[in-house]
């Protein structure tokens, strides 16, 4: 009898841990966001080009993991998933973030794509549903308004990608400032 009660209790814990629904958000493709916010084909960023020493250090820490492989639930240089990379880099810079990208998406302040600066977080819906399933750290904003970000890709590991790439463009959801 004690065994049955213990099994039922364990099952209830397992079921309750996985039953919460991630927040569903409205997907707005990057280009449409840019056109809506800036009224232009190319983004006219509000970024001055100046990066604080804290953000420079954050990006330097992220860059040292370039080339690290993708590893599901990984958060070391032996392998990272997207949120593991973000957690590790921010932790190294004395900023604690939740482990899951959907929880990271609730931290800090939501900002428009026009307001992003290096060090901000960009969130994506890559699983087909309109909910956060991927995160990256804004790396640079080029003079033409192109936003690049560093992240852990399932196929290429830790790399720098652009919001101008078709895949990331259509998967883009929103950005947040946490640092």
Number of helical regions: 6
Low-confidence stretches: 9-42
Q: What is the ordering of alpha helices and beta strands?
A: HHHEEHHEEEEEHE
Count up the domains.
Answer: 1
Lateral strand order in the biggest sheet: 3-8-4-5-6-7
Distance between the first and last residues' Cα:
52 Å
Q: Any guess at the CATH architecture? A: Alpha-Beta Complex
Bin the helical content.
25-40%
Shape: globular
Please tally the β strands and state the result.
8
Largest β sheet strand count, sense and barrel closure: 6 strands, antiparallel
Chain-averaged pLDDT: 83
The chain-level structural class is alpha+beta
Q: Overview of this structure, please?
A:
It is globular, with a radius of gyration of 18 Å. By secondary structure, the protein is α+β, with helices and mostly antiparallel strands. Strand 6 (147-153) and strand 7 form a beta hairpin. It has a single domain (22-177), classed as endopeptidase fold (from Nostoc punctiforme) (Alpha-Beta Complex). The N and C termini lie far apart (52 Å). It is built from six helices and eight strands; from the N terminus they run H-H-H-E-E-H-H-E-E-E-E-E-H-E. The strands form two sheets. The protein has a six-stranded antiparallel β-sheet. A two-stranded antiparallel sheet has the order 1-2.
Key words describing this protein structure:
single chain, 179 residues, alpha+beta, endopeptidase fold (from Nostoc punctiforme), six-stranded antiparallel beta sheet, 8 strands
């Amino acid at each position: 009898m004690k065994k049955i009660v213990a099994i039922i209790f364990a099952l209830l814990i397992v079921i309750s841990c996985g039953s919460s629904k991630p927040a569903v958000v409205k997907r707005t493709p990057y280009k449409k966001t840019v056109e809506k916010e800036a009224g232009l084909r190319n983004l006219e960023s509000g970024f001055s080009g100046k990066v604080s020493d804290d953000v420079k250090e954050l990006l330097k820490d992220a860059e040292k993991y370039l080339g690290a492989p993708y590893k599901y639930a990984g958060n070391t240089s032996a392998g990272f998933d997207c949120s593991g990379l973000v957690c590790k880099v921010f932790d190294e810079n004395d900023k604690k973030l939740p482990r899951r990208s959907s929880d990271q998406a609730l931290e800090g302040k939501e900002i428009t794509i026009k307001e992003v600066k290096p060090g901000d977080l960009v969130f994506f819906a890559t699983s087909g549903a309109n909910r956060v399933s991927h995160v990256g750290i804004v790396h640079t904003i080029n003079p033409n308004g192109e936003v690049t970000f560093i992240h852990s890709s399932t196929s290429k590991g830790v790399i720098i990608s652009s919001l101008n790439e078709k895949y990331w463009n259509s998967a883009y959801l929103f950005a947040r400032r946490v640092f």
